[in-house]
Design a protein that fits this description.
The protein has three helices and 13 strands. It is mainly beta and 188 residues long. The strands form two sheets. Strands 1-7-8-9-10-11-3-4-5-6-2 form an eleven-stranded antiparallel sheet. It has a two-stranded antiparallel sheet with strand order 12-13.
Length: 188
């Protein structure tokens, strides 16, 4: 898969221990994200290289929400990054901001940064002058936290951060709330 930008694959060593990982940054674009008339962010597409057949789809597609916003992230597993670290590449992004659904499947407008043990991963999508950024961070005392921010073209936060809950899929062993309840037989 050809991506614009920089990829850095650390070997097991000091960089990995200190939190190194894959940094995939892309050149800013001025195209607007296609605003799709879908009624559900889950209908947003991923690009053709998704999913990898090596790990479960649940680990490569996560849906998060806060009651107002819903975020969908597609990521492709690209091999182990050492220990329990998974190397992910971006494959798609969807945002229902409560007004309309925005979908990004163009890999030139996507980014994903993975870190040691995936403890501070970040996914982002760019649309013209706006970047949506999803932080997935492990709080050693409180568990996983997920936060969505919106930035302008200068990197200034113009909305958020908004705390989100993992609803569907799996992130580093944590199963989404809706998936967990469905497995337990709860009515959603």
């Amino acid at each position: 898969m050809a991506h614009k930008g920089v990829r850095w694959w650390p070997w097991l060593g000091v960089a990995g221990v200190l939190g190194g990982g894959c940094v995939l940054d892309v050149t800013p674009v001025t195209d607007d994200v296609d605003l799709v008339a879908h009624t559900d962010v889950r209908d947003c597409p991923a690009h053709a290289d998704w999913p990898s057949e090596v790990v479960s789809e649940a680990e490569q597609r996560v849906v998060l929400g806060d009651g107002t916003r819903t975020v969908l992230v597609y990521r492709t597993w690209d091999g182990p990054g050492g220990g329990r670290t998974a190397r992910y590449l971006p494959a798609g992004f969807g945002l229902d901001d409560g007004v309309q659904v925005h979908c990004v499947a163009d890999e030139d407008r996507l980014g994903y940064a993975w870190t040691h043990h995936n403890w501070e991963d970040e996914a982002w999508a760019r649309s013209g002058e706006v970047t949506w950024r999803l932080a997935m961070v492990l709080d050693l005392e409180g568990g996983w936290t997920f936060a969505l921010t919106t930035e302008d073209q200068n990197g200034t936060v113009i909305d958020g951060p908004h705390a989100l809950t993992l609803r569907e899929g799996v992130h580093n062993g944590q199963v989404g709330e809706d998936d967990r309840r469905a497995r337990a037989g709860d009515v959603l």
